[in-house]
Amino acid sequence: MIILTESGYGELVRQALAAAPVEACGLLGGTVDAAGNKVVEKVYPLANLDNSPEHFSMDPKEQFAAVKDMRRQGWSLLGNFHSHPASPARPSAEDKRLAFDPQASYVIVSLLDREQPVVKGFRIVQGTSSEEEIHIIGRE
Predict the structure, then answer these.
(1) 11, 23, 54, 94: which is the annotated catalytic residue?
(2) pLDDT 10s digits, 98-111
(3) CATH number of 2-137
(4) Which of 11, 71, 95, 117 has its C-alpha lying 20 to 30 A from 23's C-alpha?
(5) Interacting residues of 74 by C-beta distance below 8 A, sequence separation 6+
(6) Domain-by-domain residue ranges, the chain?
(7) What is the structure's pLDDT at 50?
């Protein structure tokens, strides 16, 4: 399970809306609790060097700086996020092909309905995705 604060969830949606029609992207830093839940402490928005509405690549310098900050905080890299400006919140064939870390969480923000963005989490192992529950703290 991925645990996000209301503000972390809001940050994901804000980044997706601000970047549209280009895909937003970034990293998720935090901790893993005793039950194995990934507790997101910080959302790290990064530049999409591809500047594309259909795919992304993160700036390596920004990735390095984000991971360095996570280590300084005593956190781990939990996964990444990106947006789908005009498609559902599910991994595309390219998302699956490029998912190399089976332990990572892959969060996708869909703006198919810009009034009600959809945020979903996934685990991707050897090209097969399974949805990972997202719990938002402060939301009933």
Answers:
(1) 23
(2) 888 999 999 999 99
(3) 3.40.140.10
(4) 71
(5) 31
(6) 2-137
(7) 95
